[in-house]
Design a protein that fits this description.
- By secondary structure, the chain is an alpha+beta fold.
- It has 5 helices and 8 strands, in the order ββββαββααββαα.
């Protein structure tokens, strides 16, 4: 499983020799930019911003391979495919979360504001996705609603997909402990779940142009948004 402080090293032999030219940006976060893959539009390439020193791509690669070895299904995750060299530096290739028409899926808040989903649907998506995290012991280490995308399935249903903040923010003891002891991963996801539900109850409703109050489904055991 590796020592608590072990990290993934990278050299040019791990990536193809050709260089991809990235021209269509589909998203940007604090540490990285996401660009549509110029050859395969179903993929995107995550590239670190020049001023960033944190190796989030290395963590994503390490954790993605770990989940694949564990056989964790990926309805709420993007698959990690490997490394490429680009005109913007080395990049990590992952699935691009797309709508049926091929456009990138919006973040949760944007989906609410646009009317793609309503507050009741948002609540159900969050509960279902975070239940899945807990059941599969998947680590959500960094809170950010922009990291939760709303994908519309071909049958019209919606699904929440986590695209960032998984695994850890840094290699180290905390990452090792959460990978080793499943209850720690579940505890962290439960904390973030409560924060998202509180955000839905207090702020998202007004931001989305609807009522700030959220009515939880009667079948839900979670009372954190009531």
């Amino acid at each position: 499983m590796g020592s608590p402080g072990s990290a993934i090293s990278w050299d040019a032999s791990d990536a193809p020799e050709f260089v991809l030219v990235l021209s269509e940006k589909v998203g940007s976060g604090n540490d990285r930019e996401c660009w549509r893959h110029p050859i395969n539009p179903a993929l995107c390439v995550k590239v670190a911003k020049p001023e960033q020193e944190r190796t989030q791509n290395d963590i994503d690669y390490h954790y993605g391979r770990l989940l694949a070895r564990r056989g964790v299904p990926t309805p709420h995750l993007t698959r990690v495919h490997g490394w490429v060299m680009t005109n913007r530096g080395r990049g990590l290739v992952v699935d691009l979360v797309r709508q049926p028409d091929g456009t990138p899926a919006p973040p949760l808040l944007e989906a609410l504001r646009s009317g793609l989903i309503d507050l009741a649907q948002a609540y159900e998506l969050v509960v279902e996705a975070f239940d899945w995290l807990a059941a599969n012991r998947v680590i959500l280490a960094d809170f950010g609603p922009d990291n939760f995308l709303v994908r519309q399935l071909p049958d019209g249903r919606f699904r929440l997909v986590f695209v960032d903040g998984l695994g850890a923010r840094h290699f180290g003891m905390r990452y090792w402990a959460r990978r080793t002891f499943g209850f720690l991963a579940r505890k962290k996801s439960a904390q973030f779940r409560r924060r998202v539900l509180a955000l839905l109850a207090s702020g998202f409703g007004a931001a989305a142009g609807g009522s700030p109050a959220v009515s939880c489904p009667d079948t839900s055991p979670d009372l954190s948004c009531r």
